[in-house]
Amino acid sequence: MNREEKNQQTLRKILDGALAEFSAQGYGGSSLNRLCAARDISKGIVYHYFDTKDALFLACVEECFRRLTDFIRTRMTPEQENPEARLEQYFDARWTFFREHPVYQRIFCEAVMTPPAHLSGEIRQRRQDFDALNTEILEGLLASVPLRPDITREEAADAFRLFQDFVNARCHTAETDFAARERGCRQALNILLYGIIERRGLC
Asked: What confidence tens digit (pLDDT) does each residue in 123-159 have?
């Protein structure tokens, strides 16, 4: 094994330990001492790769959003034009990703709902591709359905972001589990797109 391969192996070991620690304890409750003890890694080695706990947390956030974004992109079928089916595709892909990789659930929720205040700007940068994907999918959905003449696509997209913020805040306050939060996001977008009134038979 050459030096580069050894460095990558060590880095992966640190990141796997950090993912497990942040997933179990959250940013605020996490401890580098516990991480090092659990993975038999010296603190000096950790600091060789990451200057601070913040840098390590941001690396985990970046990996979470990168892998999630890539996963969703591979699961979305470009030829699927039915907006309801496309919406289901998107949320099914999200749910499948977190079911297969549960270590990212808490990191994702913390980054989205309760990011450490001093890291919020850097977290936004690391989730830019994920946010862009969400905007792309939402705009695609809106482009395939007729909107009310007094509502623009930009206004509809802004309304959905408000819906998301409400669902996120409610779920966080109620300490709702991850599956319930995902169902809430899915239902919020469904209501935004299709309303709450059964329109069949109405004049």
From this structure: 999 999 998 998 888 888 777 778 888 888 888 778 7
Rounded to whole angstroms, the Cα distance separating 38 from 109 reads: 24
Query: What tokens appear for 105 in the block?
Result: 């659930």
Q: C-alpha angle with apex 88: 199 to 92, nearest 5 degrees? A: 150
CA distances from 129 to 20, 61, 64, 133 (A): 24, 12, 12, 6
Q: Is the dihedral of CA 171, 127, 124, 38 positive or negative?
A: positive
**Single pTM value for the model:** 0.83
3-state SS of 2-16? CHHHHHHHHHHHHHH
Residues 106, 70, 187, 179, Cα dihedral to 10°: -30
What pLDDT does 172 receive? 46
pLDDT over 80 (residue 176):
no
d(CA 95, CA 3): 38
- The residue written with tokens 């034009």 in the block is 81
Record the tokens describing residue 186, joined without a space: 């899915």
**What is d(CA 85, CA 92) in angstroms, rounded to the nearest whole number?**
10
Tell me how crowded residue 196 is: count the other CB atoms within 10 A of its CB.
6
Q: In this predicted model, which residue has the larger pLDDT, 25 or 156?
A: 25
